[in-house]
Amino acid sequence: MYLIFGELFFITGQLGKTIEMTDDKAFVISTGYITLLLGLVTVIAHNVWVADWRVIITVLGWTTLIKGI
Question: Which helix (DSSP H) or strand (DSSP E) does residue 69 occupy?
Fold first, then answer.
């Protein structure tokens, strides 16, 4: 799947535009805030530590929260 998306980025020229967007500090800060808020909402709404599939949502929420920081 990553290979397919990589080829699409290369073929359409989107890779250069994506790299240019990471140079813009306002874009990086705003996506960081959005990621932080999404992770925080997930952790607050679904902080369930049980030994079944629901823990995956909790781990993804915590990962998103940490990535946003």
Answer: none
Q: DSSP H helical segments within the chain, as ranges?
A: 2-12, 14-23, 25-45, 54-68
pLDDT in tens, 37-49: 999 999 999 989 9
Model pTM above 0.70: no
CA angle 15, 17, 19 (to 5 degrees): 70
Cβ-based neighbours of 24, under 8 Å, separated by 6 or more? none
User: Which residues constitute the domain of residue 20?
Assistant: 1-68
* The total number of structural domains that make up the chain: 1
Between 47 and 8, where is the model more confident?
A: 47
Please choose, from the candidates 4, 66, 65, the residue with its C-alpha nearest in 3D space to the C-alpha of residue 37: 65
